[in-house]
Amino acid sequence: VFKRDSYEHRATLTENKCAKDLWNLMARKKTNLCVAADVGTAKELIVLADKIGPEICILKTHCDLYPDFDDAFGATLLELAAKHDFMIFEDRKFADIGNTVVGQYSSGVHKIADWSHITNAHIVPGAGIIDGLKQVGLPKGRGLLLLAEMSSAGTMAKGQYTEDAIAMAAKHPDFVMGFISTRPSAWKGAWSRGLVQMTPGVQLGGGGDGLGQQYNTPDRVIKECGSDVIIVGRGIYKAADPVASAAEYRKAGWDAYVSAL
Ligand code: 5FU
Question: For residue 42, what are the CA distances in angstroms to 18, 23, 37?
Answer without folding.
Answer: 24, 28, 10
